[in-house]
Specification:
Layout lengths: L2 H14 L4 H7 L6 H17 L20
Length: 70
């Protein structure tokens, strides 16, 4: 996947998950916890792997921490 395609995919993902606590924190310039960062990193890595953009040998995927924002 080309860089522009990956960027579009990430932007689309972020827009479609505005109610997620981690995304809310990013958009409102609030600090992220270590768990938030790990989950976000894993999610973005998995998105790239789906299209063969990256290789990651982790055996267990991690979910984004924090749940949904109300």
């Amino acid at each position: 996947m080309a860089g522009a395609q990956y960027e579009k995919k990430i932007r689309d993902y972020l827009r479609s998950h505005l109610d997620h606590l981690v995304i809310h924190r990013l958009r409102s310039n609030q600090p992220l916890t270590e768990t938030d960062l790990q989950g976000l990193e894993q999610t973005l890595t998995e998105m790239g792997e789906e299209d063969g953009a990256t290789k990651n040998n982790r055996s267990q995927p991690r979910k984004m921490g924090g749940g949904k924002h109300r």
